[in-house]
Amino acid sequence: xxxxxxxxxxxxxxxxxxxxxxxxxxxxxxxxxxxxxxxxxxxxxxxxxxxxxxxxxxxxxxxxxxxxxxxxxxxxxxxxxxxxxxxxxxxxxxxxxxxxxxxxxxxxxxxxxxxxxxxxxxxxxxxxxxxxxxxxxxxxxxxxxxxxxxxxxxxxxxxxxxxxxxxxxxxxxxxxxxxxxxxxxxxxxxxxxxxxxxxxxxxxxxxxxxxxxxxxxxxxxxxxxxxxxxxxxxxxxxxxxxxxxxxxxxxxxxxxxxxxxxxxxxxxxxxxxxxxxxxxxxxxxxxxxxxxxxxxxxxxxxxxxxxxxxxxxxxxxxxxxxxxxxxxxxxxxxxxxxxxxxx
Length: 343
Known about the structure:
Layout (H helix, E strand, L loop, with lengths): L1 E5 L3 H12 L5 E5 L3 H11 L2 E2 L4 H5 L4 E4 L6 H10 L4 E4 L6 H14 L3 E4 L6 H12 L5 E9 L6 H7 L2 H4 L2 H11 L3 E9 L4 H6 L4 E8 L4 E7 L7 E8 L3 E4 L25 H4 L1 H15 L9 H20 L3 E2 L16
Parallel strand pairs: 1-2, 1-4, 2-3, 4-5, 5-6, 7-10
Antiparallel strand pairs: 7-11, 8-9, 8-13, 9-10, 11-12
């Protein structure tokens, strides 16, 4: 097997290293808008560097991993499926719902295989939480609380193309709400603040946001996110039922301190970022894609799954901007398409 990986920045380098360690992945062909960067990574990993992205599609590969800047995702995914290549794409497919729908229509029309990168589905804590909820161990679920807190704001250049806090950051939380509970979000009410660094106001983004979600079984969900959590990287999901409650993401590296006299001590080495916190999950995610390409496993996160999380994020952004409750039925979906291949 030969896998072409496009985009050798921070996340692309991480994915390339994971694939290089995977004995079933075969060889790697790396490409980047900066050919020198791809060449340096190829030298470190014993891979082959392409002089441009074009060679990924002309030199012959069995699958494609898209990990470049967000604005390039849609075009590359479409090109891969038109060439009959299974493709893994880092989320999002696009920064808006319309382009994402267009990509998924193309995937369906071509019979393409697309896996989208929602790595928390492979995290041990979240997987255990899902098992407990689905088994009934918590009883009737009544409250879910999620949070994603980055230790420092990203640069303005990133914010300009990120799609905003709800689409770029909290979309992971929305995916987990659906995946863990097995229920759909029916309506949202969201708010945000841009009171932090001036770069948020300049780019029309927010540094902190909160959303109240209602699920189709009546469960209430609160999802909060911020780019300004100086204590460290904090990602958690708390699930409260009539019989018990649990938390994913709570460990001795969670960057929060108790004010109680007998409370646990603060983390001596708090999580610094998503690559450190979710490193095993990223590895497992790419291993699942390799199995998918080899025909040895089901698709753990196809285009419809990714679209469902994005629709919640879009509804939250609409709610924030218009200051009102938004029902998910207000947003377009893909009711006219058959199940996407590879699921």
